[in-house]
Amino acid sequence: MDESLSARGSIDIKERLNAMCFFAEAAEVRVDPETGQVKVRKMISAHDVGTILNPLTHRGQVEGGMIQGFGFAMSEDLITEDGKVVTANLGEYKLPNICDIPEHETLYVRDHSGPGPFHAKQIGEHGAIPTAAAIANAVYDAIGVQITDLPITAEKVFAALRQRSTGRRADGRSAKLLRGSTTPELIKIVGFDKDITLSVGEAKGFFAAENLVISFDQTLNSTGEILGLLEGKWDIGFDNGDNVVAWDEGRGADGKTHDLFIFLGGSQELNQSLFVRSDIKEIGDLKGKLLGADAVGTGFAVVLRYILHCHGLSFERDYNFKSVGSTRLRLAELSSGKIAGAMVNPRYVEDNGAANLRLLALGKDYADPYPARLGLTTRAWAEQHRSLLVRFIRAMIKTIDWMLAARNEAELVDFMQSKLGRSPEQARREYRRLFEPSAGLTRRGGFNPESLKTVLEMRRQLALIGAPLPPVEKYFDDSFYREAMAAIRNSD
Q1: For 173-202, what is the mean pLDDT?
Q2: What's the pTM value of the predicted model, to 2 decimals?
Q3: CA atoms of 108 and 126, how far apart (whole Å)
Q4: Is the pLDDT of residue 319 over 80?
Q5: Where are the alpha helices (DSSP H) in 82-151?
Q6: What kind of architecture, by CATH, is found in domain 273-365?
Q7: Which CATH fold would you assign to the domain 18-159?
Q8: Which residues contact residue 341 at a Cβ distance below 8 angstroms, ignoring those fewer than 6 apart?
């Protein structure tokens, strides 16, 4: 039986024209060619409105739509992985706040052609539709580089400018364009979260002062992060010290030995804890259960194995791991009941309101001190870019000095709220945490080699490294840091 269906219809466009409305938008932007930073100075919207019945709500629709489009164009970034949203909260999604919104002017084209009561016309979402395109076209008009991937970040603009400049130098036509300016050098950074020191260093100009600009990519798992570093996709990463040990000793995903090393300190306290489903009352209840981890043989998975080892549970005999990925993904799997437990950052549990989870063990009670939030890279890249790395370290040291100066407390707390999306309570708590001996920032970004002994000892007890234990000096090189400090002292 033929179940196909066909139909034919017609429409008289002339009779429907009055039901249509039109709109246009223009943007005025300023682009810093040295950093790629885009500042939207003004938006001008024009709307074909017919008769406006409620001026206040109509204006709110137009301006609210522009603000939505502005966020879409400039900052909002919803990251998904395998159909799952991994942008954990609005702080990372980067909604614009009132300080970000540009001046806005609206022009109305009024007539008596609307199809609604009193010749009104629809407004709907029209305010949001043209904004991103208008800003992107304004950027193109300003610098001759077209950005086709939203949001329009400084990193994307800078990379596009650099690519254009490289091409023009190859053609011998860039001397006039670049006269009188020095193009900043780009450092490509990867990590699970953009460390606050990076955000502050950008905002306060410490990287710009070293003629640097940074880009940051958020990784979903440590395997992709480290492989990207080794393959040159990124220059440096921020992660824990166990990943350096594991990959240097051939315990990484590829089973090969590598030349990763630590060049900058971060924190000495583990901020991950063992959270479980509410039906799990004690660690012994995890016997026979499936737990979540990033990579099963590195990082926080090793801490989790050690915690369970201390309570008589052995990996693959009493429990197994599911390789899930980052904290966000582990939290999502745990909240949905797909795994029984995982190491998770308590702040993420708080942000996501995961009240169905139980805190079973604090990571810092089992691994202390712990090398966390460290700067790491490969020896090959560092030797080829020594000056670049030293300047980066200088900028980081100056950023940390600024953050820990008491006179900057109010500004830093406000930054945490307005730019990082922290609540006032969270911002105050995180500010105080910066000064804690273990959890806070290490003084001037120094690295404590003793924290690596914690990692090596856990691995020894889990039979993940042989005896005798390698010297901790194998995994860090402070020559770059010492050179950066010497330059700072000489300039003071």
Answers
A1: 74
A2: 0.67
A3: 13
A4: yes
A5: 90-93, 131-143
A6: 3-Layer(aba) Sandwich (3.40)
A7: Aldehyde Oxidoreductase; domain 4 (3.30.365)
A8: 274, 275, 276, 277, 280, 286, 289, 291, 292, 334, 360
